[in-house]
Amino acid sequence: MNKLIKNKDRTIKVMILVLVMLDQMIKIIVKAYYGIKTPIIKDILYFAPVLNDNYSYINSLFNLGWSRIFHILLVVFILFFSYYAFKYLEARTIKIQ
Predict the structure, then answer these.
(1) Residue 38 bridge partners (DSSP)
(2) N-to-C CA span, the chain
(3) Which of 59, 60, 30 is nearest to 47 (CA)?
(4) Which residues of the chain have pLDDT under 70?
């Protein structure tokens, strides 16, 4: 049983490493194409990366003008909420079992 857990941990670590490497490779590729509009399906779909200087997709899409401080506070709030929601669910699940 203990050996199975160690193998599972190793598999998870390798998967995380592979995903981080994939993420970095994608970032390098996208950076190489800044300012270049590359057609994927002619006249329908293009690969045209731009720098997101509005801090979030929703803010950029709707031009809401939310500041960096707002986004930092939002992320901190979501982190606290997620942590305490997880702790609540964990405590509730342990009591049920």
Answers:
(1) 47
(2) 22
(3) 30
(4) 1-6, 94-97
